[in-house]
Every structure is written in C-alpha cells, then in structure tokens.
Amino acid sequence: MNNISESPKPHILIVDDDSEIRELLSRFLSKHDFRVTTAKDGREMRQAMTDWSFDLLVLDLMMPGEDGLSLCRHVRSESRMPIIMLTAMGEDVDRIIGLEVGADDYMAKPFNPRELAARIKAVLRRSSSSLLSDNVEARPDKVMFAGFQLDPITRTLQRDSESIVLTAGEYDLLIAFVDHPRRVLNRDQLLDMARGRAAIPFDRSIDVQVGRLRRKIEPDPKNPILIKTVRGGGYMFTPEVAAA
Fold first, then answer.
1. How far, in Å, are 145, 174, 237 from residue 150 at the CA level?
2. In what order do the strands lie in the sheet with 162-164?
3. What's the pLDDT tens digit per position in 175-213?
4. 215, 21, 179: which is closest to 109 by C-alpha?
5. pTM reported for the whole predicted model
C-alpha cells in the first residue's frame, strides 16, 4: 500500500507520430514515477487535454499535418503547462523557434530517455504551472451555481446568508466539478483534477466524497439533481456555472 502522504505522480502527455517513441517513453517514464498518456497527433492531443489534467507536455516538432510549433502555440495560448519539444533536427534555429513559441525546454533526437526524464524533472521543479492552476487562474473570483456562491479565494461556499462548511476533500471535488460543468467525469479524472492522491487515498473514497458533498448541496441527497451518477461513466455536475 502506498504511503498516503506521498505526492501524486506527475502526469505527462507525450505527443509524437512515431509509435515506437511513444511506446518507449511510456514504458520508461512509467517506471520512473510518472503517469503517462500518449497521443499520435494534434487531434488526440486536444482530446487528451479535454479529458485529463497534465503536468507537462512532451511534444514532437516534426509531425505530419499540424506540426509541433502550431500545437505549441495552441497550448500556450490556453495554458502555462510546461512544454518540452522534441525534434530530429538539432539546429539552433529550430531550438530558438521552439522556445520563442513557448516551449520550456528542447531536446534533439535521438536522445537518451534518462536525459529526457531528468529534463522533465528539472522543468517541473522550476515551474509552478499545471492545468489545474491554469483553471484556477481562468476562474472568476466568485462563481454561482444553483443558488450557491463559491469563493475560491477564501474557499467558502454560501447559499443566501448560510455558510456551508466543506472539508478539504469536498472543496477540491466541488472545484473539479465547477471547472468542468455538464461533462461526464469518471473517478480517475476526478482524482486527477482534485489532486486527491496528495492528501488521502482519494481513489478508494471518491464515491464517499461525492455522497458527502451531495448531502451539503443537494435539495434531496437521495435523489440528486446537481451531481448525477452516470451509469458506467462516473458523475456529471449539471448546474450552469457563471461568474458571480
């Protein structure tokens, strides 16, 4: 059993059209305390970033169709998530262009996977960025849903003049729902978004946390309408979320 105080493994997204490189990096990084998701092109990358939270992106520069520079610009326009670019061309001009469009580091192929792992750790150490923090920055100071007002700065929830006390786990779960309204989120996604592994064995108690949160915000917790269970899928936060 893992120590419950252990920090969650960083979640890395590898985008490369070379299946051998994707498989090699996935196996190697998974053995070195990273969670890894792979994508072969921009379409799969965008879908993965919609479905999951990532701590760092490893992005191939030269890909058929939409290339790495275009994808890097797209990611950087929406997120401060760290990006390491890979390319078969080691010329300075390519490195400079990659860094100019927002990459945090750059490696030329062929490369040693151990060096890439070291680069990933170094970039993560000097960067406080993550998809979660980007969501926090993009979120209004206060948000409204179903008559509730949530203040992420003070971490308080109110309805009319009543304050609803939330535990840390309940608050993190609610934030995950508020940031992704009207989307089906499975248990692993909720765990990833709420960063629950850092505090408690969240994956084994996600349903318990949902039940507790329902008791605090649902008109009738036995017949929930705000957090609906999706059979075989997970949960969906149904209210409209708006800036207060």
1. 8, 9, 15
2. 162-164, 156-159, 148-151, 143-145, 242-243
3. 999 989 999 998 878 877 765 444 344 444 688 889 989
4. 21
5. 0.58
